[in-house]
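Justification of resources, computational component.

The compute hours requested in this renewal are based largely on the per-chain cost of generating structure records like the one below. Each record pairs the submitted sequence with a full structure-token output. That output is archived, and it is also reused by downstream analysis tasks.
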Amino acid sequence: MGAGLYLEFDLSSKEEP
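The structure output for this chain reads:
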């Protein structure tokens, strides 16, 4: 609970830093 969201956010952040 959280790790999945964190990973998804990381990818989104990399696309739009």
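The helical segments are 3-15. Residues 3-15 form the longest helix (13 residues).
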